[in-house]
Amino acid sequence: MLDHSLLVLGSGALATALAVLTLGPGVSAASSHREAPLIAGDPRADNTDVYAYTSLDRPDSVTFLANWIPFEEPNGGPNFYAFGDDLRYNIKIDNTGDGVSDLTYTWRFHNSYRDSANQFLYNTGPVTSLTDPDLNFRQVYDLVLSRGDESKVLLSNVPAAPSRVGPASMPNYAALRNQAIRNVPGGGKTFAGQAEDPFFADLRVFDLLYGGNLSERGQDTLAGYNVNSVALQIPKAQLALKGNPGRNPVIGVWSTTERQGVQVSDSREKAHGDRWKQVSRLGNPLVNEVVVPLKYKDAFNTLNPDQDRTVQPVVDKVLDPILPKLIQQVYGVPAPATPRRDLFEIYLTGICKACGPIQADLNAHSLNKDAKRRDIVPAEELRLNMNVAPTANPNRYGVLAGDLAGFPNGRRLTDDVIDISLQAVEGAAQTGQLVPALADGDKVNANEVPFGTSFPYLALPHTKSVNSGPTAPERSGTKNAAALGGLGTLLLGAGGFRLRRNRKTS
Fold first, then answer.
1. CB–CB of 380/347 below 8 Å?
2. How far apart are CA 337 and CA 359, in angstroms?
3. CA 248-379-381 angle, 5° bins
4. Which stretches does DSSP call E strand in 179-296?
5. What is the pLDDT of residues 143-195, one digit of tens each?
């Protein structure tokens, strides 16, 4: 049963956030793959995806991945792609459930050129190491850990892996990337550099939900593109509340981007100072794309998660989402009854028997034995139960298929978040069954290249041009929507775990 007394629905946080719309030219406040109106103006600050999961090769640790700069065309020279040296890139961890970061890992980048007066090239010859004199442009970063008001520099002047210019310029890019993996004091590893974009999806969903007849499916829109990534692997004991992952296994995760001196107040105020302001945020995938209304997308990305429950329009669209109504309008699939307490549980509280209709104790902060119940608030975070062991054969449907190590319990690289989210919004987390008419989802079930088996797990950046010209044949899915019902009878919940509807009245 959902306790609505947890909600303090006000307008103050929203009003403050909406003031971000007065940001100066060229500054955006948006995240994910271009889903918010201002995102095109500031791609270096644009979060695209966040991942958090128990490390496959080090099960005593958690791997965090966060990506920026969507749709990097591999041949985008001569400047290629760099992290912003005027930005702070953060991965934040909440282990108490109050919606405020208890640990923040920050990457600050610095640029340098060997010769900027007489060269225009990114590199002047084949690059075989990160210190190669032929690498003209290079970035290094400082990695900082903050706990409350205290900050500690963990590493300084760590080289980032460069953009992958091509086989002639970087004949062994895998070796270059390995040089950019460094150990973190106290255990763990860090990496920053370019990678293949691990998100896989057919984004023609925005053309009236795959063309209005499910004909526009089966093409991975992100195939061939790259992103800039930061990766971190940290022992669980350093992440858990009171250092005890056995008693306190649940953490909430999100990434943010901050820029110094941006305006987040009334435009008539002349003094804005040089404080760092959050301009981008990302936790669960697709929340800002398909849950938050257009009017509030940019403002939402300036909020801290502890403010989410105070924003009535956003909470309303979790409890009464837009997407099921669109699916009903276009495809005739009945929208589940509202209020959607199951979605409130997935996105804002985590999954637990006492949290909502999904009858499982999985990843709510209230499962942490040392957490103060009075401090736990609904907040949009990617929640992970670190005590769930990784599986050797992950199911792309994650928790919906009984694979508890997958989304929405954290997020792995192989989790098919488009299909999972589509099924969840249609009520599959309550019924334990796929919705037959939409069982095939976007028909993009895996990444176009395999992921690695060791840190940082991301695939190497592409080098071939994405653009094959307007005369290239178009890949498309089936035009027969009626043929989609075959997988709809598939029961979810293998491995001895089933998600069941709560029969109790709320």
1. yes
2. 18
3. 65
4. 182-183, 189-196, 226-235, 250-260, 276-282
5. 999 998 899 999 999 999 999 999 999 999 999 999 999 999 999 999 999 99
**Cα–Cα distance between 236 and 238 in angstroms, integer?**
5
pLDDT attached to residue 471: 53
Q: Amino acid identity, residue 150? A: E
74 φ/ψ angles, rounded to the nearest 5 degrees: -55, -30
Nearest-angstrom CA–CA distance, 441 and 218: 9
Query: Is 400 in contact with 63 (CB distance < 8 Å)?
Result: no
3-state secondary structure 131-200: CCCCECEEEEEEEEEEECCEEEEEEEEEECCCCCCCCCCCCCHHHHHHHCCEECCCCCEEEEEEEECCCC
Nearest to 9 by CA among 288, 213, 289, 307: 307
pTM: 0.87
**Rounded Cα–Cα distance for residues 368 and 244 (Å):** 10
Q: What does the block give as tokens for 222?
A: 């992100």
- Nearest to residue 440, comparing CAs of 499, 491, 486? 486
For the chain, what percentages of helix, strand and coil (3-state, to nearest 5) are there?
25, 20, 55
- Phi, then psi, of 366 in degrees rounded to 5: -65, -15
Taking CA atoms, 289 is separated from 15, 37, 242, 286, in Å, by 21, 11, 35, 5
Position 273 confidence tier, pLDDT thresholds 50, 70, 90:
low
Q: What is the mean pLDDT of residues 212-237?
A: 95
pLDDT one-digit tens code per residue, 330-356: 988 899 999 999 999 999 999 999 988
* Cβ neighbours of residue 73 closer than 8 Å, sequence gap 6 or more: 225, 465, 466, 467
Pairing of strands 103-113, 87-94: antiparallel
pLDDT (tens digit per residue) in 151-165: 999 999 999 999 999
Query: 30 pLDDT band (50/70/90 cuts)?
Result: very low
DSSP state letters, 59-120: TTEEEEEEEEEEEE-TT-TTT-----TTEEEEEEEESSSSSS-SEEEEEEEEEEES-SSS--
